[in-house]
Amino acid sequence: xxxxxxxxxxxxxxxxxxxxxxxxxxxxxxxxxxxxxxxxxxxxxxxxxxxxxxxxxxxxxxxxxxxxxxxxxxxxxxxxxxxxxxxxxxxxxxxxxxxxxxxxxxxxxxxxxxxxxxxxxxxxxxxxxxxxxxxxxxxxxxxxxxxxxxxxxxxxxxxxxxxxxxxxxxxxxxxxxxxxxxxxxxxxxxxxxxxxxxxxxxxxxxxxxxxxxxxxxxxxxxxxxxxxxxxxxxxxxxxxxxxxxxxxxxxxxxxxxxxxxxxxxxxxxxxxxxxxxxxxxxxxxxxxxxxx
Length: 292
Description:
By secondary structure, this protein is an alpha/beta fold. The protein has two domains: 3-53; 76-284, Uracil-DNA Glycosylase, subunit E (3-Layer(aba) Sandwich), CATH 3.40.470.10. Helix content is 43%, strand content 9%. It has a six-stranded mixed sheet with strand order 1-3-2-4-6-5. A hairpin with a 2-residue loop joins strand 5 (245-247) and strand 6 (250-255). Helix 1 runs antiparallel to helix 2 and helix 4 runs antiparallel to helix 7. The longest helix has 24 residues, at 3-26. The radius of gyration is 23 Å and the shape is globular. The relative contact order is 0.14.
C-alpha cells in the first residue's frame, strides 16, 4: 500500500466518523465507545503509511468510532409482551426506567447551565428560561424553545400559547402548579425560528438531566422539535401524535404545540383526545407508582 492510498483511506475513515458522530448526536447519544480491535487496525494502517513516507507515527490517530445504538425504546416484541389484550395503555405497572439513578435537584442542573454561552442563541436572549414547576410532578410538558414573553419573564409558556396550555392542563383536572413545564432549548431563537440541530443538541442534555431528577410518570411532548429531540422518530407530529411512546422507560404522549393550536384551532379536538389518554393513564396507575 503506497502513501497516497493510505492517506486517502484515513481521510475516508475520518469523514465517515464525522458523519456517524453527527447522526448519533442528533439522536441524543452522549457516550461513545471505541473498539479496541478497530483502534489496532487503524493504528496498523497509520504505521504502514508512516513507513511508506518515512515520517513518525503521531500518538493520537483518527479512528473509526464504534457508536452504540441509543436505547431509547424497548424492542417491539417486549412492548407486545407487556401490553395486556385490549389495553389502551399497555402495562400499568411502573415502567422500568433506563435512566441512571439521579440524586440531582433541578437547582443543580440550573447551576451548571449558569449564564449559558454554549451556542449562538445566547447573543440575542434576555435571559435563560429554565424548566419550571412542581419538582415532584407526575406530568411534564416539553415544548420547543422560549418566545418573546418567556424571554422577558424568564419562565416557560407564559404568553398566549402558555395561557392555552394552562387551559389544557385544567381541562384534564390538574392545575398548573401540579405539573412541570420546560423546553428543549432555553434561549429564544431569533424571530422565534426553530432551533438548529446543533443548538438543540447542546441544550438537550440538560433537559434529560431534569427529567431524570423529576422522574415524571408521563411526558407530553408538544410539536415536531420536542418529539424529534426526545424520541427516536423522524416522522412529523401528525403521524405520531395520540400514541404513547417510550423515552428511557417513561411514557411519552406526542401532541400538537399550543402555538400551532392558536394558528389552527381545528386541531384542538385531536389534542383534547391525546390529553384524555394522558389523564386516564395517570388515573389508572396503581397507588404509590410515582416516586419523586
